[in-house]
Amino acid sequence: MSKSFGAMSIAQLSVLIQGAAADPVDVAEAVFESIANYADKAVFTVLTESRAMAEARASSKRLREGRSLGLLDGIPIAWKDLFDIEGLATTAGSVVLAGDTPAKCDAAVVGLLRQAGMVAVGRTNMSEFAFSGLGINPHYGTPVNPRGTDLPRIPGGSSSGAGVAVATGLVPVAMGTDTGGSVRIPAAFNGIVGYKATSGRYAMDGVYPLAKSLDSLGPLCRNVRDAVWVDAAMRGRTAPDVVERPLQGLELLVPENIVFDGAEPGVVAAFEAALERLQKAGARVSRAVIPAFNEIFDLMTRYGPLVTAEAFALHCERLAGPEAERMDHRVVMRTRLGSRTTLPDYLRILEARRRLIADVERLVGDRLIAFPTVAHVAPPIAPLQQDDELFFATNNKTLRNTALGNFLDWCGVSIPCGTGLSGMPVGLLLSATARRDEALLGIALAAEPVIRGDFA
């Protein structure tokens, strides 16, 4: 194979396809060849080669006839294993759903990207039922982080296969979901871009839930521009409507509490260096305590996490029956904790959440919030598989920074900003308050090359 099409950005590949320098059929064949030759078979749970080749042939015919559907026509995409794909059971990374009735139609966003001409190559692996930020899966295997050069390291979760599929150059984009960080964490750990939209920005029909109050979607891809293009199509737009915004005068707020607690020195150094580059490019940085951060964790201590309460409500019957024996015991243990949250407790959490969202919106205003996506780089897999106590402690720390944004209904983009321990990638998370996605993406377009610095 002369070209690794999956290793290109959407923008690079689109130029080739739209200019007739690459045929969508050849692109799809090359992608499947790359997947077949890739040693780690835990990245995908299923490939949809027949569908993909039919979609690629249709795209090729349109382009030859001058009927391109736009920038995404012929571009391969992989879907996390909780998006309905017509004719397949949606397993959500679990063996207990493998025998379910196949989906009668695509999930809404799968259908929208199909209408934009994208080619669905398969489903990527994930943490079982999306309930872990580490990406370890005992049923379908754990994809190995391709950035690790010393020993096998976690991919991040729950969109584990999505992060690895893009980082290793198998596909240019993979779709994930994000309830507590499941797009942004694997993006940071694998050195790619991950965009989590404000909850409700996209149709959720046909997406297997975790916690409906917190669930959101977003792509993992090579750069912010790719995310902008995919975001437009996911909302039924024929072209992006995000405008790149200047960095001169950009106001960034860096929290002084919670997000740097226990952070690895290499992570802090990479973040601060990127922040300094942004300041030299014209951004203004202020630092302050965000009291809501502490109150969120106080609420979790008092009433239990919102995500755990809603996950338990979803799975309580399953957990009480024989299916629990076939599930990852760590997922079972964590989900059962949700039984401790009473209905009055749950309502108190929701009321406090509404108040805290309003409080933080007043505090932040039009500023963007910046801090490390994760306070540490991707740790080794083996110790986490062998020690449940270490697993839960690491999972909590991994999810800590990103979960704040889900609770406060922020949108966010994780952008690689350098490397930390063992040369592993570090992500800088830019966030904005709810429904300011266009502003966030417009600033991220301009900020990305500055944030990346020398990171490839």
From TrEMBL:
Protein origin, superkingdom: Bacteria
The GO terms this record gives for MF are: hydrolase activity
Q: Which residues form the Amidase domain?
A: 27-441
Q: One short Pfam family name for this protein?
A: Amidase
Q: Would you indicate the residue range of the signal peptide?
A: none
Gene3D superfamilies assigned: Amidase signature (AS) domain
Q: What is the role of the protein in this entry?
A: Hydrolyzes indole-3-acetamide (IAM) into indole-3-acetic acid (IAA).
What this protein is called in its record is: Indoleacetamide hydrolase
